[in-house]
User: Fold these one by one.
Assistant:
Number 1:
Amino acid sequence: MNHLSKYLGTLLIVIIFFIGGDIAVNGMWVGNLENSNTIFNKKIGLDQSTNKFLQVKIVPSNNIKASKYAFDGMHIQLLSDEYTVLQTATINNGYCQFNMNDVKKNLDKFILISPLTSDEMVVEKNISFTSFVLDASDLFIKQKSRK
């Protein structure tokens, strides 16, 4: 009887660590410790939620000779088709990223806009990566004139 209880105890501990480790790697522990249903649904495959991101590569227009770091710190806004601001992202290393799970509206198209250069682009709902061409020749002229 003593060996059986040790065996079952060890098996239970291994199962708990397996479930806990797998869920912790997938990021499910954050904010979900009190909700065991979410954790176990994720483990057995009933939870189909995934993080959806829209990653945008910032490309300078043809007439601008600039590195991918030239736009770092600028803001890009994600707008609905009615031009309401849904999210704002900052460009870092030539890229910016929007978390589409935070967008509560069910829209088919979004608009990317740069408030500084007034460039805009229409993006479909299911796209996860796109390139956004910015014509910032006016900004670079102003920067050169300040020096």
Number 2:
Amino acid sequence: MSLTRKLLREMELTDEAIGRILAAHHEAVDALTLQRDDALAAAADHEQTVAERDVLRTEAAAHHAEAERLRTELEDFRQQVHQERTEASRRAALHEALLHAGANEQAIPLLAQAVRTSEEDWAGAVLLDAQHTLAPVIREYAGFFSSPVPLPTERITPPLHPTGTLTHEDLKAMTAEEINQNWLQVRSALGQT
């Protein structure tokens, strides 16, 4: 039922009261209409915001998945680099151990392939017990190993000038051939002057 002048007259209201009631009613309806329009606009904005949020969530999930993939890839790469460095350090340590054990340097790459090690034999890149680890290879390929044999040599004594240390006057009196023959003493005498 709508509010009309006829209805208000039937209630026996004065024309002035009817005018004021209708004016207040129109104001209330206009205000409610504005509130309704604002609410509809806000609802539309909300729906758009929700749609944008859903798109951003989807994009964020995709970026998160990509970041996780890249993080995993980076970690795999780091592990690979660490493993390659450890293996290179272990090969160098094994090379040094074989060399120290008396292996022929030309045969070390082949002998290194014959050495069997496990993780228990290593502390990082350090071979824990080289003698124990290399013993089977030394037994099997004994021909490639030798121990150093010290050779005796005669004691060498440097020649001395018959008069002892050379003086500046001795140097002036010497010929070029004598200077060449006694070069160490000449050099020592020149350093002192």
Number 3:
Amino acid sequence: MANWTPRQGGAGEALIHWGVQNLINGGTSVYSNPPTQAQVDAGSGINQIVAELKRQGGGGSVGYTNTTTRMGVTYLNSIKTAIDALRTAQGWPAYSWTVWPISATALLSDQHLYEMRKAVTGPLIVSASASFFIQSRSFSTITQEPPYPPTGTRQVGTPVNPLLVNGFYWEFIFFGQDRQRTSSDARAYLNFAIPAGVSNATARLRLYMRRDFTNSNCDFTDYDMQVYRLDSPIPVPSTQAQIDAAWNAAKTLIVAQNIGILCPARAIRYENEFIIPSLSTGDLTLLFANSGEIAGQKPVRNDALPFVEYKHTEIYRTFNSINARLIFA
């Protein structure tokens, strides 16, 4: 957030309000391209708003004002339009303007200037601090059916794209002359560290996902991808006891949505958004699972296919330098 100048006071919304006793001026127009945070904080006036807009990657068509240029309605409305475009590009929610756009008959007031500053102020964004998945798998000889759910030892992995899977079921694995079948399920986790100053807030979780990409014989969309909040946040497990505790941790369902809606095509990465309520300062662990696995539903057996009801989704912590993130706005 910019250190706005002038301002009405020294705390809260007064930091954003221009103040009715302050003259409307342009302020310095000396900024680098793009401006730095230090330059914006040292700026003032209308140009400080434009500089913050440009610092965040917007306002390409908006120039700085100066003492020889009159700040007319068209110019001021163009700043508002550029701010709206920036918010759209950044994935922020639309800002609720109350006195914009302005007309030639309107007098510029503190409310106009406040809304421009408020709308260009970036929301608090908290990126995922860690990601991991826990997977359990059971093998059997070719003539036997592996147990489902698997009874094998659960293991933890820490890639940037943790997975959830229900039914590596009747997968034929060949080790030389030895043939095995396997069943498997997994749950994916993301950890966040919410900074000080957040209390009972709602955030939008935005992240990339991909489903069913490894085998063309398996393309099932009959399950929901579920997002849970662990009742008590946990670090990445490192011992078997911690792994088992994470698997069985108490959790609260936040949202469930059909995977075919979230990821319409196979092997394509989609950015999706979920609403996470009641967040406050501190650690947070989110769990992703599919409804079939959580419900203990045994996948359908069909020996004619190499995989049967293979349901696989990847939950990305980072994709193309874009983090899974909570957006508080």
Number 4:
Amino acid sequence: MKLNKVNKINIIILVIDIILLVVSIFTYKYIFQRETGKMIYLEESERFATENKNPIFKIEKIILYSSANAIDNSNGELKNLDISQFTDIEIFINNKSKSEEISAENTVNELFIDNIKIESESDTGEKIFNYKNPLNCGKYVDLENWRDDGILFNVLNSNQKNEVANYDENIFYTDCSNPISLRICEQKHFNKL
């Protein structure tokens, strides 16, 4: 009887030891993974900060030009106006902060703007955001809205392409010598006696 009682106590102690061992292993694994994740994050953050101390591309300047335009479509006593308020945006990129020479590292091969969302306090009118011909900056020109896939720029990488370029299309030079030219516009239609 006494031997049977000792066996039961040993089995209980063994089960408790196994449970403690399993809990200890999971706790160690959780703490180890967490600390390893922190170290990896720290190393990646330091590497990212070091690489970005001297970035290849920098925004040199941003020019904003805001204005409005009204088109009178009236043909009689009723005033029929299309009013547009717009802001032209030109973003100049400096790609020569590391080197004055043009190389594969400091040229643009692909440029696009996506995930576009325009927020306005007004629910009326049409909101438009799209590429704008940089030669028409500050001038009112009707634009179509961007497509759902965003704005994809045609990157020109040769003088031959420049000679036949149509600046009414989304154009950007591979050497960043022209600005990224955009327009935000809100158009409203009014009828008034």
